[in-house]
Amino acid sequence: MSEAIPRKGQLRPDARAPVSRILPTAEGEPLARWFWVPEWDLPEGAVHEALTLPFPAGQLVVEADAVRVYGPVSRAWRRDLTGRGWAVGALLRPGAAHALVGDVGTLRDRDTETKGATRLHADVTRVMDGPGDADERHTAAARLLEVWLATQVGAAVAADPDAVPARRLVELADSDPSLLRVDDLAARLGASVRTLQRLASTHVGMSPGEIIRRRRLQEAAERVREEPGADLSTIAADLGYADHAHLTREFGRMLGFTPTGYRAGGTESH
């Protein structure tokens, strides 16, 4: 795990269902931003709502029943966790997502089972269901996923002339708070807006503007949750929203509740 990996996409952290995050090695760095491994063992009758606003990317996920590629999502993602379980996922770089599924935009808000991953599924399941320290098992499972990715798509990503510019697009849009407009992002990258739109569509499955807005809303949600005394109008202004009402509308549209309801720990509707 690494404290350098942002956790702003996890909207309702719960110690009962912790999520390990593991950085790639040099071999996997062009293919995945990081690997994530939730594992839970809840008491009978207990339910944890896993609520996330995912990063702008495709995800390769090994689950108990299959290996799947999940496309980018247009809104917050929810799943109720019960009993015991785990998953091992990779937050894919744009080039790796494109190499796995082609036009990533066709997988928006849906998923597809990954062919040729039977051995990967068996190996990861053996590690995750086996004995040993959780951190060691999580890291071992992530490395299995990393090696599989490198074997399956490493060469294709290296040969893709759009992989590096698409990756740079996401890195900038997802990390630089001064970039609030697509024109600014294009100028920073030395490319046309049309080029950015094409790269984002085929390799990310979201528009450049959506990627910028996703980062901004993730940061807003993190501040609303972690800074209970902060004025919501100040948070809105700091992050480039027109006003408090604009922030509230975005919360309602993307998350399904207001900033006030989220801060209170509930799901007060917009």
Explain this structure to me?
Helix content is 43%, strand content 16%. It has 270 residues and is α+β, with helices and mostly antiparallel strands. Strands 1, 2, 4, 5, 7, 8 and 9 form a 7-stranded antiparallel sheet that branches. Strands 3-6 form a two-stranded antiparallel ribbon.
Which helices and strands appear, and what pairs or packs with what?
Elements: E1 19-22, E2 32-41, E3 48-52, E4 59-62, E5 67-70, E6 77-81, E7 84-86, E8 88-92, H1 94-101, E9 111-113, H2 118-128, H3 134-159, H4 163-173, H5 182-189, H6 193-203, H7 208-226, H8 232-238, H9 244-254, H10 259-263
Antiparallel strand pairs: 1-2, 2-7, 2-8, 3-6, 4-5, 4-8, 5-9
Given helix and strand content, the structural type is: alpha+beta
Radius of gyration: 19 Å
Low-confidence stretches: none
Shape: globular
Q: What value does the average pLDDT take?
A: 93
Helix content: 40-55%
Number of helices: 10
How much beta, percentage-wise?
A: 15-25%
Give a count of the beta strands, DSSP E runs of length 2 or more: 9
What is the terminal-to-terminal distance?
36 Å
Listing every helix as H and every strand as E from the N terminus to the C terminus, the arrangement reads EEEEEEEEHEHHHHHHHHH
Largest sheet: 7 strands, antiparallel
